[in-house]
Amino acid sequence: MTSPTPGPAATGSGEALPALRTRRGGPGRALGAVALVLLILAGLFTLLLIGVEVGPVALLTGIVLAVLPVPIYIALALFVDRFEPEPPRLLAWSFFWGATGATLIALIVNTAGQSAVGGAFGSAVGELYGASLSAPIVEEGAKALVLLAIYRWRRTEFDGVLDGIVYAAMVGLGFAFTENILYYGRTALEGGIPLAATFFVRGVLSPFAHPVFTGVTGVGLGLAALRTGVSRRIIPVVALLAAMFLHSLWNTSAGIGGGLGFLTVYFLVMVPVFFALAGVAVVALLREGRVLREYLGPELAGGYLSREDVAVLSSLRERRHALRAARRQGREAGRARKELHHAATELAFLRRHAARRPGEGGERLEREEATYAARLRELRAGLPLGVPVRRGATSGSEPGQGDPLAGLAAPAFVDPRPIAAGSSTSGEGSAAEGSGTSPSAPQPPAAWYADPYGQARLRWWDGGRWTEHTAA
Known about the structure:
Blueprint lengths: L26 H28 L1 H12 L2 H10 L8 H12 L1 H21 L1 H31 L7 H28 L3 H14 L3 H17 L5 H25 L2 H38 L1 H5 L5 H7 L2 H12 L3 H26 L5 H21 L48 H5 L11 E4 L7 E4 L4 E5 L2
Antiparallel strand pairs: 1-2, 2-3
Helix pairs in contact: 1-2, 1-5, 1-7, 2-7, 3-7, 4-5, 4-6, 4-7, 5-6, 6-7, 6-9, 6-10, 7-8, 7-9, 9-10, 9-11, 10-11, 11-15, 14-15, 15-16
């Protein structure tokens, strides 16, 4: 969730309206700049260490191969975060920490520990220690630091399981990116089949390994955000230990289990855990839709939102339909519609956070809630939300959809004969020309209606004429 501060935006009428974004200044911005510089230095130092080991050509090869699939994996990780997208800045920090700070910590600590144990007990014991004990503990602990920081200091941005999964996925992808540079660089020295095999295993077969390990930690913190009492402190610790165990099992199977051991753990452990996390994400997405229906009650009771409006706001599919319909009216209308969706979502999640953490945030959360509520009402007054709900839809047919309407009957006063060629279908011209209404006929409320002319699936009646439509 993001905090509201004034900024330029536009509605369908072209009126400037404040945007809802987070801006931080003063000491916070200075501290962020220092942290960014330190992480850049950490990343450069990590690349230097890898370059010293494998050489510049192998390093460049590793970078190219590691970069190629990253946009795809990031897009997949963000695909589930659609009701309440996390701030891009925090997502970038998560990825960047995984790719720089966490990787450097792991590289130094694991190398030093493996060397010390190997010197005392032999290289075989040192390798086993590094892969099965040191790496899982150090790497998962280092990756969890940024999750804990967001959870601790940006609590309104980390208020559920889905948030934990998304942030964890970004950290894990960042860590895997830099780690892959090292592994690709090492096998690039051998070239040919070893390099291709390493890319297939790490980049195609198991790119989700680190996101899954850290995702378990993220789920634990997400559950803690929804609870109070002792369990709020115990669950994250248990989740972190589970992430370390999975990581250790994975490394051990790859290091000493041989090909059969690796495939066994892959198919019997990693794949089921991955799909379990995906299932958790889907359930969390469904719950986020219910959050909007539950916490937009004041606007529904006050008449600022209708039941149809709440139906579209709580359904990802109907949001897309409404947004596409608005964009047909122009770029500004599309922006206003998108901001309305954003304001309603942030308002609902702020209220849920306040209900679960009474007293936390104090006056700041109250001011934000009031700002979002006023913004929602302002946008709704100047823009017909218009719910193009699919006729015959049933509750739960897609993530985030709940209690959608079965469709609205066509207004009784409309002449159902086809519109003559050249007449208006988008609100231009008189109401009589566009709809066949009688000037004395009663005017039904603005809403989406089944198209009486059979030329579209739904048409929006603004109280006086047809102004937009959705394709059949």
